[in-house]
């Protein structure tokens, strides 16, 4: 009989471990369990719902055949992109800057002594999408800045699979335009900040690459996730002197990539679900809303996390770094967690 005691004890120990594991899992909210899944290991179904710039959802076939004729045209003609300048002298009505047309720049209100920020929208969007006036007004309310809104609707209005394939060419076109701007005005790349949302985040990454990583800053606002997890054309830390990403919808099935892609990656509220948001669309858009607020107030401060577990459980204790803002000489590295409020300025 004595020989059975160790076996009984072992079974009791295993039972206790099983109960503890079940209890721990049940104590973790579903949203936090999602965050524990490595974004690189996420897989998307063939058909997903992805929003346009007005918040309307569209069914996307991630395996659709891209429109090769349109892609060839985009590759040949980087001037498909529109560049719309706003300054404190023309806050509402834009002036169109045209690549390889020096007069369009010299006759505009562009001032090479002021910093330049380029804002790039996402899929199924255009110059009128909310991100553009929101960030424009934040900058012009803060300082004398050249705000250039890039409208890339020629490709952005194509199906998602085609738009993804065309991102590198659109990004290169933006880089070529900024090289032309530098040549005409003498403004150094160290005075330029490229800001992109969703697919636009990967566009500004490719534009920075075209410039040889010389742009002062590249900011990726919840860079798009579908078809980008293992895509070598996605935004990366070498695309600018300082590259920052703000992740707001990176959970399982989220619209954002949810993994580190920059020098400094910020995960507001864990990077998955945002306060007062009940849809993936709301979480996704919160990235540019938060960024615009930081341009005005520079008030959101992240804490450096050394592990994904620290980030998920909100117990990061590392150095502080302010998220977003308009500082061209900003620097930092690592991943950061911060918590925000439910409404502007968060």
UniProtKB/TrEMBL annotation:
Superkingdom of the organism of origin: Eukaryota
Any one cellular-component term (Gene Ontology): extracellular space
InterPro entries listed in its UniProt record: AB_hydrolase_fold, Lipase, Lipase_N, TAG_lipase
UniProt keyword Signal present: yes
Entry keywords, A to Z: Secreted, Signal
GO function term, MF aspect, one: lipase activity
Classification via CDD domains: Pancreat_lipase_like
Cellular localization per UniProt: Secreted
Chief location: secreted
Signal peptide residue numbers: 1-27
Any GO BP annotation: lipid catabolic process
Lipase domain ranges (all copies): 79-316
Annotated family: Belongs to the AB hydrolase superfamily. Lipase family.
Protein name per the record: Lipase domain-containing protein
Species annotation: Spodoptera littoralis (Egyptian cotton leafworm)
